[in-house]
Amino acid sequence: MKEDSAQDFITEEYLLNMGPQHPATHGVLRLVLRMDGENILDLVPDLGYLHRGFEKIAENRTYKQFLPFTDRLDYLAGMFNNHVYCLAVEKLLKITVPPRAEYIRVLVSELNRIASHLVWFGPFAMDLGAITPFLYAFREREMIIDLLESVSGQRLTYSYFRIGGVAQDLPDDFIVQAKAFCEYFKPKVDEYDTLLSKNIIFIKRTKNIGVLPKELAIDYGCSGPVLRGSGVAYDVRKNEPYSVYKDLSFDIPVGTIGDSLDRYNVRIEEMRQSVRIIEQVLEKLPGGEIMAAVPKVVKPAPGEAYARIEAPRGDFGFFIVSDGSDKPYRLKIRAPSFSNLSVLPELVKGLKISDVLAVFGSIDIVLGDVDR
Fold first, then answer.
1. Which residue of 3, 207, 211, 367 is most buried, as measured by CB atoms within 10 A?
2. Does the pLDDT of residue 2 top 60, yes or no?
3. Is the Cα torsion angle 265, 266, 267, 273 positive or negative in sign?
4. Hey, is 15 helix, strand or coil?
5. What angle do CA 112, 189, 101 make, to 5 degrees?
6. In the 8-state DSSP scheme, what is residue 351?
7. Where are the domains of the chain?
């Protein structure tokens, strides 16, 4: 209890639950807010509603059997989950993936990155009151999902990658359709940007809201657009290149002050850069095999390996310890959404309750990536 002598009235702190059924938490996440009227004093994320024990499941499945489980982590970015897991196992096996398979991996991953960012863009705009961008985003995402379905047979949990390569080659018309999509999509991104970045309501809801200084972002282990929005030009594709990214030309967009608007601008530009990468891959795509020689029963020599990639939400890593058997002795997942969510309490203190939607949406987490 505290008394305001000037106004001569008494206020009382209270706790407010946002979630786990609140639509703006985009999953079973519970945010416990400590409030003084409309002002946020503190926020505590309550996790675990979607915990499925994947790390322990991995220790009871063979290396090949666990691959489909990875799609269920960040379920909006299944190709990336497949990719980082395969990279870690390939390090243990000392396998070199054929060049064509590497290019195909980058191709489908960047398509998946755009699809993932579209699922962020549409709901983020809708949380702030704009419905039209949501409809547009899912219209374009459907075209990407059609492409990924043609190559994998699935529309969300793809399980397309294999240890040593990919499951099957591209369909005959895939390259033509992918090029057509790129030409169609480039002006659409500009249209998205105009819809929101020229909208005074959107600007007032995001500019200088949820400012994340670069030092704080680094201290919390933030990565991806959350880190780059704070002005840190760190991208695993550039800083620790994997696959064929070192042979491709693209820029790393960064923000200035690290507010919600900066994080929005970074993801919009990342979609443009992904189109740029896709077009280069389609031009350079070599012929040849799509799978390396991999034993039917994968039994890496005793040892350990860590692999990391730049997923849509940031630095995504797999650490695997092998004891020489056909199952991992230990598997640990470094999920970007977990670290990015951890900084949320620092960003909303002193703001109003309506600002939580803008800040939380700008972080772009997936609960399957947080809880695992």
1. 367
2. no
3. positive
4. strand
5. 25
6. S
7. 2-371
Q: How far apart are CA 21 and CA 69, in angstroms?
A: 25
With beta carbons less than 8 A apart as the criterion, state whether 170 and 98 touch: no
**Would you say 307 and 318 are in contact if contact means Cβ atoms under 8 Å apart?**
yes
Give pLDDT tens digits for 5-30: 556 666 788 898 887 887 777 778 88
Amino acid at 303: G
Q: What is the dihedral of CA 149, 153, 155, 161, to 10 degrees?
A: -90
Cα radius of gyration (the chain): 22
Structure tokens given for 372: 């695992």
Whether the ω angle into residue 345 lies within 30 degrees of 0, i.e. cis, is: no
Q: Say if residues 358 and 125 touch (Cβ distance below 8 Å).
A: no
CB-CB contact of 169 with 290 (8 Å):
yes
Nearest CA among 254, 250, 255, 320 for reference residue 278:
250
Which of 348, 371, 370, 372 is CA-nearest to residue 360? Answer: 348
8: enclosing H helix or E strand = none
In this predicted model, what pLDDT tens digit does every residue of 125-160 receive, in sequence order? 998 888 999 999 999 999 999 999 999 999 999 999
- Per CATH, is 2-371 categorized as 1.10.645.10? yes
372 or 200, higher pLDDT = 200
Residue 263, token pair as written in the block: 């994080």
How far out from the chain centre does Cα 137 lie? 16
pTM value?
Answer: 0.92
